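**Backbone shape codes:**
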Amino acid sequence: MTSLIYRFYDNLTRKKTYDTNSLHVSELKRCLTVFDLTILGIGSTLGTGTYILTGQVAHETAGPSVILSFLIAAIASILAGLCYAEFGARAPRAGSAYTYTYVSVGEIMAFIIGWNMILEYIIGNITNNSTIIGTGGFFPFGIEGTLAGAATCFYAFVGFDLVATTGEETKNPQRAIPLSICLTLLICSIVYCSVSIVITLMVPYYLINPDAVLPEAFQYVHLPTLKYIIGVGALAGIFTSLLGSLLPLPRVLYAIASDGLIFRFIAWIHPRLQTPMIATILGGIVSAIMALIFDLKKLVEMMSIGTLLAYSLVSISVLFLRYQPIEDRLINNDEQTVQSICKQLFKPFRLHPTTISARLTKYLITCLVINGFILCAIQIFAQHYVEEKNPIILSILIIFLVIELCLIVLIAQQPKNEKSLYFQTPCIPYVPILSVLVNTYLILKLSPATWIRFGIWMFIGFLIYGFYGFWHSSQRFINDTQRLLSGSRSSLDSS
């Protein structure tokens, strides 16, 4: 019974293997450059964020401090973008966060991320509508309004991960993908902050029309001609964003189907066009049906869960990979005693990762994520007691905060591998950890109804994985073949 459970767990957590020589082998046509990827990323990321979200956040949530809201959101997105950039240098394959998670964390988590990325790209970028009146000044809604605005503005940066889904269609992807991600986030941050400054200086925040921000702003300052020029530009920009949202969907479907986790026929490549034709058609049909039937204002919150999960898993994957030993330096003969584990935990003595340090770091990272989840939950759901300085809640909060800091210190002193990459996430482990904590906080801010809809979507995904993907996984066949070969070799040696 124990062996069956272990075998089942081993199958769920099996990792996709790749080698350096296969990274540049692809059935897709390599034609995209740094310029192409940057333009695609900017077009997909800006979209409704420039023409709708800026005005809505300024009018309803943050007031003139929307500038700071976008700045905070930009920092949070850059944290995730730096982790995406490293994975783009490590594994430049189609599938983005799905592929990254499959390589470093395991199959079941990769499927969860891939399934949610499908939902993210189907729904696209949509914003909600509500009306609140503030008091005045630069912070009319208080600091809370600025932070709430930052949570909303964070979704304006969704789209840069499109760049990472095109790894198999990019020339020199290990250089182009990290550079394009950084350029996309930098340019979009400048544009968002600039637009928010211009809007709030042109029009008082309480007079901003959230449905037509830029055209009405020029109408307000008696420049009606520019109003129509801006309107045409807005249509072109939103159309570009729509195309940008449709581009990565077939690539994610192609990547998951190629691995056998969903139906393999979806991964069919057109012999002349060298593009995933069935995945493109299927993605367009599903997008059209969902746009016709469902209320997208509710589904957009489900999109945010998938996006934040993808960002978090990529950050965790970067941590896992940076503390794993390089294969040619693998040291696996360490005696795993309590004394050796404690010595590695509190006083590491090796310069390079070992099997003990890698396993220990995984446990520490897991504990850190769980502890961070509890810490964010206390801050959100017990905020009233924290503001009232309830001694019990404050004591619990301080205890979990101290534990979190101790875990960060223990992780930071473990040895890291020195694999040379074109781009590496700076300040390991602090940047990925901060990214995970920010994303966790935003996930917990979502409504219960969103979690129910998310549960239904995941139930459908698990049905497909349980009845098809688990049994038809390409990695399953590879692992079974290796197991049979090793068993045959052992039998020959014994005879």
